[in-house]
Amino acid sequence: MSVTDWNRSGDWFLEQFGVLIQRMKESRQERRAVVEKYEQEISAREEAVRHKTDSVNKKLNKMKQNGLKVVTDGDD
User: Cellular component terms, GO, for this chain's entry (predicted)?
Assistant: First the structure.
């Protein structure tokens, strides 16, 4: 193999390696974007569940207090 062919081959391999590295970088960025999207969705759902749970707990506590008032008022 001549020196010119050797250099061309080396350049070709470097180009291919560069393309491969670029694809790996883009793939990694896409995966990170997908993960971030799902993390945001999970966070939003968790917040909604927490809000609903707090609301239900408040209502249950109010019902308990009202029930205690009914029971204690009847004992007089």
Answer: RNA polymerase I core factor complex
